[in-house]
Design goal:
Layout (H helix, E strand, L loop, with lengths): L5 H22 L2 E6 L4 E3 L2 H8 L6 E5 L2 H9 L22 H5 L45 E2 L2 E11 L7 E7 L8 E4 L6 H18 L4 E6 L2 H16 L13 H10 L4 E6 L7 H14 L6
Helix pairs in contact: 5-7
């Protein structure tokens, strides 16, 4: 029977552990679509493919760094360069190997990119949703909206200076897109807290969506508390007479009752986005919220 010494066995384990880590790193790729049905950054090839397949003049690449992916999306398209992505184009033989590796294969390729062999996620896991940085898109005209599939995209945020103190000032921000007439920067009515501002910002966005007969809404917010409350906890709260497991009353009950009432009759997909992480839509919603906090309720 073949045996490994302790030192060799330890080295072998380290090697396999390194290989495992390398496989995980291989999966974390970002697929940038500069020109396609919905420009943005995607986490899977299938999502990217939906945006560029049979789209004339599509421009897309894959990156290992999300920041670089967004940079590619935001870049202004220069003079068209010949590549395998262009109709009838040929690969430049002098191009560097690194650059070629970052270009996705065209759909005419005989051997399409395969990711299934290196995927480490469970097939039952929910599909990751792309983040559309709508601040990078052209200014909007009239009442046009940014869409994700057949759903309309909106960003909301709430803020409160001196939160929890006597002189607290809170505001709500709703961002539909660059220069959009429905963008909102308002002072929060009532008790001035950050959590109330987050909830009421979402309420405002849904009210606006309903006024425009929007049936499906993708709502980005950096408040995980709001998302968990409206999608999970509220059902238990209602069953328990708006009591927490500790027996204490649920704070902001009226705000959550309003939000729960508003989501009836509209399909809202709640997506958490990291705050102050450089995502344009969230940054704009935050700016609008801070602008609203400076206003008076009569302005």
């Amino acid at each position: 029977m073949f045996r490994l010494s302790g030192g060799v066995l330890t080295s072998a384990r380290s090697l396999f552990a390194s290989i495992g880590r390398a496989q995980v790193l291989m999966v974390n790729m970002f697929y940038a679509v500069r020109r396609g049905r919905n420009p943005g950054v995607y986490s899977t090839w299938d999502e990217c493919k939906e945006q560029v397949e049979r789209f004339a003049g599509a421009r897309y690449k894959k990156f290992a760094c999300e920041e670089e992916a967004w940079k590619f999306v935001r870049e202004t398209e220069g003079a068209p360069a010949k590549s395998s992505e262009s109709s009838g184009g040929t690969q430049n033989p002098s191009a560097s190997k690194e650059k070629q590796d970052n270009v996705l294969p065209s759909f005419r390729a005989k051997r399409p990119l395969q990711l299934s062999s290196i995927s480490t996620t469970d097939q039952s896991s929910p599909k990751r949703t792309k983040l559309i940085d709508i601040s990078a898109l052209p200014p909007m005209i009239g009442h046009s909206f940014t869409n994700m599939g057949d759903a309309t995209v909106v960003y909301t945020d709430g803020c409160c200076s001196q939160n929890g103190k006597l002189k607290a000032r809170a505001g709500i921000g709703v961002y539909w897109g660059p220069n959009h007439p429905m963008n909102v920067a308002e002072k929060l009515d009532g008790r001035q807290t950050n959590q109330r501002a987050e909830i009421q910002a979402a309420c405002k966005a849904i009210e606006q969506a309903k006024s425009q007969n929007i049936a499906k809404l993708v709502l980005y917010t950096d408040s995980m508390f709001t998302i968990n409350a409206i999608t999970k906890w509220i059902h238990t709260w209602k069953k328990n007479g708006w009591k927490l497991s500790t027996g204490a009353d649920v704070k902001n009950r009226e705000d959550f009752e309003k939000l729960h009432s508003l989501v009836n009759g509209i399909d809202v997909k709640w997506i958490h986005i990291p705050g102050h992480a450089g995502f344009g839509g969230n940054e704009e919603a935050d700016r609008l919220a801070r602008e609203g906090a400076k206003k008076s309720l009569t302005s």
